[in-house]
TrEMBL record:
InterPro entries associated with the record: TPR-like_helical_dom_sf
Signal peptide: 1-24
Organism in which the protein naturally occurs: Alcanivorax hongdengensis A-11-3
UniProt-listed SUPFAM superfamilies: TPR-like
Listed name of the protein: Uncharacterized protein
Record keywords: Signal
Domain of life: Bacteria
Database matches in Gene3D superfamilies: Tetratricopeptide repeat domain
Length: 382
């Protein structure tokens, strides 16, 4: 792919934000016999019920649909879950379990304001709902409301297994100070006989992998992702983090081998395109084109785009730092996790945007975040 010549970043960013996307004419098949797509078996098996289910059955099915959305990265399952819950939302509007599950769907769609408002209303009436506090903590953490996130973790104590509260608190502390002590505490938890469900153990290894990544240790990140994937090989987030560690270690072929036959997962396709381009793979341009088509289709359908990954694609594959910076800035308005700060800093550095680099430093100074990759980018700023 050929990138456009560089120009001043602020002008390019403004142009990108102001330009209108010209939509192509919709495709019309020649006949009813034309197959437009083959639906995965999971879509059929987890489709919304044709009639309302009983309370517990509906919650179980909705939970399975949400899990499948996270596993496959397919937002259609979130729509299925919402449709499954809709009758309960109408007939039992004050049911806390139904409301918390709906807030989980909203959180997964990055509809943080709606999810937060729903959870606060529920938790005011039902403070014993530990899962609700955890979900609220995640939302506050993603938006860098760390004091509120800590409070939500504390409120969950006594309503959840002790290990869940420990992991929740550790996930916040690692973002607001030296990650080393918190890292060691979670390592001790991993070695302890404290009972944990598979989901809690996977969460713990995810946090350990994130902390190792924060400290610039790709080898240890890889080790923890493998431990987390032992109980759920399809965990999408851990697989993405594993691929990122492999890319950092220069093991492009491992990423290609893992993702070249799973092109339906957007985040996997992105990492495949990056690995293939770095390795000079003959299908590198094809996979990059495929990811770009995916982005255009989502935009035309007005679906929620993952702006962080879009910015990474623009920076690393398309070599369009100005466009990447504009996207990273839009993403920063929505969420402020370390990965969001990394892409914001990387794109700002590529564009020599001193104002945005100053914004990154201010955020770090305000919250005490320590991230080796961000520090390296800021330290090398000309």
């Amino acid at each position: 792919m050929v990138s456009k010549p560089a120009s001043r970043c602020r002008l390019a960013a403004a142009a990108l934000l102001l330009c209108q996307v010209c939509s192509a004419a919709p495709y019309t098949p020649a006949s009813d016999q034309v197959v437009l797509a083959h639906l995965p078996d999971s879509l059929r098996a987890l489709a919304p019920p044709s009639r309302p289910l009983e309370h517990d059955q509906a919650l179980t099915l909705a939970q399975q649909q949400i899990h499948q959305a996270r596993r496959e990265g397919d937002p259609r399952f979130l729509g299925y879950a919402e449709a499954t819950l809709e009758p309960l939302l109408s007939s039992e509007p004050n049911d806390p379990a139904v409301g918390i599950m709906m807030a989980t769907i909203e959180q997964s769609r990055h509809q943080y304001l709606q999810a937060r408002s729903r959870l606060k209303k529920i938790l005011k009436a039902h403070p014993e709902q530990g899962q609700g506090w955890l979900t609220l903590a995640v939302i506050e953490r993603v938006q860098a409301n760390y004091h509120a996130a800590r409070q939500a973790c504390r409120e969950s104590a006594g309503h959840l297994p002790p290990s869940a509260t420990v992991i929740c608190q550790a996930s916040i502390e690692a973002l607001t100070g030296p990650p080393g002590p918190v890292y060691q505490r979670l390592q001790r938890l991993a070695d302890s006989p404290l009972p944990m469900s598979d989901a809690q153990r996977r969460w713990m290894f995810t946090e350990l992998a994130e902390m190792a990544w924060q400290q610039g240790d790709a080898e240890q990140t890889l080790a923890y992702t493998r431990q987390g994937l032992a109980s759920e090989p399809g965990d999408r987030y851990l697989r993405f983090l594993k691929a990122d560690a492999q890319l950092a270690l220069g093991n492009n072929q491992a990423v290609i081998d893992a993702w070249q036959h799973q092109l339906a997962i957007d985040g996997g396709l992105l990492r495949l395109a990056i690995a293939a381009q770095r390795a000079g793979h003959p299908r590198a341009e094809h996979w990059a084109d495929l990811y770009q088509q995916r982005l255009k289709a989502a935009e035309q359908a007005r679906q929620q785009l993952h702006l962080r990954e879009q910015a990474r694609f623009q920076l690393e594959v398309l070599k369009q730092p100005q466009a990447a910076l504009a996207t990273a800035k839009r993403n920063w308005q929505i969420q402020k996790e370390p990965a969001d700060l990394r892409i914001l800093t990387a794109t700002a550095r590529a564009c020599h945007d001193r104002d945005t680099l100053a914004l990154a430093r201010q955020f770090i100074d305000q919250h005490g975040l320590q991230d080796q990759r961000v520090a390296s980018l800021l330290g090398e700023t000309p």
